Automatic annotation (TrEMBL):
This is Antibiotic biosynthesis monooxygenase. Signal peptide: none annotated. It comes from Vibrio galatheae. It comes from the Bacteria. Pfam families: ABM (PF03992). The keyword Oxidoreductase applies. Keywords: Monooxygenase, Oxidoreductase. Gene3D superfamilies: 3.30.70.100. InterPro entries: ABM_dom (IPR007138), AI-2_Isomerase_LsrG (IPR050744), Dimeric_a/b-barrel (IPR011008).
Amino acid sequence: MTQLTIIANIIAQDTHVAMVKSELIKLIDKTRAEQGCINYDLHQEQQNPAHFVFYENWHSEAALETHLASEHIANYSAAVEGAIKSFTMNRMTQIA
Protein backbone atom coordinates (compact mmCIF):
# COMPACT_ATOMS: atom_id res chain seq x y z
CA MET A 1 0.00 0.00 0.00
CA THR A 2 1.15 3.53 -0.68
CA GLN A 3 1.74 6.13 1.95
CA LEU A 4 -1.39 7.83 3.33
CA THR A 5 -1.44 11.62 3.62
CA ILE A 6 -3.90 13.35 5.93
CA ILE A 7 -4.93 16.98 5.78
CA ALA A 8 -6.85 17.76 8.96
CA ASN A 9 -8.48 21.19 9.26
CA ILE A 10 -9.46 22.34 12.73
CA ILE A 11 -11.22 25.67 13.19
CA ALA A 12 -11.52 26.78 16.79
CA GLN A 13 -14.26 28.95 18.21
CA ASP A 14 -12.87 32.50 18.31
CA THR A 15 -12.94 32.56 22.11
CA HIS A 16 -10.98 29.29 22.42
CA VAL A 17 -8.07 29.69 19.97
CA ALA A 18 -5.30 29.67 22.60
CA MET A 19 -6.72 26.64 24.42
CA VAL A 20 -7.24 24.64 21.22
CA LYS A 21 -3.71 25.49 20.05
CA SER A 22 -2.30 24.32 23.38
CA GLU A 23 -4.23 21.03 23.18
CA LEU A 24 -3.13 20.44 19.57
CA ILE A 25 0.51 21.00 20.48
CA LYS A 26 0.18 18.35 23.23
CA LEU A 27 -0.58 15.77 20.51
CA ILE A 28 2.62 16.26 18.54
CA ASP A 29 5.32 14.39 20.50
CA LYS A 30 3.06 11.46 21.38
CA THR A 31 1.85 11.09 17.81
CA ARG A 32 5.30 11.40 16.25
CA ALA A 33 6.42 8.51 18.49
CA GLU A 34 3.64 6.22 17.19
CA GLN A 35 4.54 3.31 14.96
CA GLY A 36 3.62 4.15 11.39
CA CYS A 37 3.81 7.93 11.76
CA ILE A 38 6.09 9.46 9.13
CA ASN A 39 5.37 13.10 9.97
CA TYR A 40 2.79 15.04 11.95
CA ASP A 41 3.12 18.77 11.38
CA LEU A 42 0.87 21.48 12.81
CA HIS A 43 0.26 24.78 11.01
CA GLN A 44 -1.72 27.89 11.93
CA GLU A 45 -3.19 30.21 9.31
CA GLN A 46 -1.65 33.67 9.34
CA GLN A 47 -4.83 35.55 8.42
CA ASN A 48 -7.15 33.46 10.60
CA PRO A 49 -5.40 32.23 13.77
CA ALA A 50 -8.45 30.08 14.64
CA HIS A 51 -7.63 27.81 11.65
CA PHE A 52 -5.16 24.99 12.28
CA VAL A 53 -4.01 22.35 9.82
CA PHE A 54 -2.26 19.07 10.53
CA TYR A 55 -0.27 17.76 7.58
CA GLU A 56 0.36 14.09 8.32
CA ASN A 57 1.86 11.10 6.56
CA TRP A 58 1.31 7.52 7.69
CA HIS A 59 2.71 4.22 6.50
CA SER A 60 -0.79 2.72 6.34
CA GLU A 61 -4.47 3.17 7.01
CA ALA A 62 -4.06 0.79 9.97
CA ALA A 63 -1.44 3.07 11.54
CA LEU A 64 -3.80 6.02 11.18
CA GLU A 65 -6.68 4.07 12.70
CA THR A 66 -4.50 3.11 15.69
CA HIS A 67 -3.64 6.80 16.11
CA LEU A 68 -7.29 7.85 15.97
CA ALA A 69 -8.14 5.28 18.67
CA SER A 70 -5.28 6.37 20.95
CA GLU A 71 -5.65 7.70 24.47
CA HIS A 72 -4.08 11.05 23.59
CA ILE A 73 -6.63 11.64 20.82
CA ALA A 74 -9.45 10.75 23.23
CA ASN A 75 -8.01 13.16 25.82
CA TYR A 76 -7.72 15.90 23.19
CA SER A 77 -11.31 15.36 22.05
CA ALA A 78 -12.60 15.64 25.61
CA ALA A 79 -10.51 18.75 26.31
CA VAL A 80 -11.73 20.67 23.26
CA GLU A 81 -15.37 19.60 23.35
CA GLY A 82 -17.47 22.66 22.49
CA ALA A 83 -14.40 24.69 21.47
CA ILE A 84 -14.21 23.53 17.84
CA LYS A 85 -16.24 25.29 15.14
CA SER A 86 -15.43 22.74 12.45
CA PHE A 87 -13.22 19.75 11.74
CA THR A 88 -12.51 18.02 8.45
CA MET A 89 -10.06 15.25 7.68
CA ASN A 90 -9.09 14.40 4.12
CA ARG A 91 -7.36 11.12 3.29
CA MET A 92 -5.07 11.77 0.33
CA THR A 93 -2.87 9.66 -1.93
CA GLN A 94 0.13 11.24 -3.61
CA ILE A 95 -0.09 10.87 -7.38
CA ALA A 96 2.92 12.86 -8.59
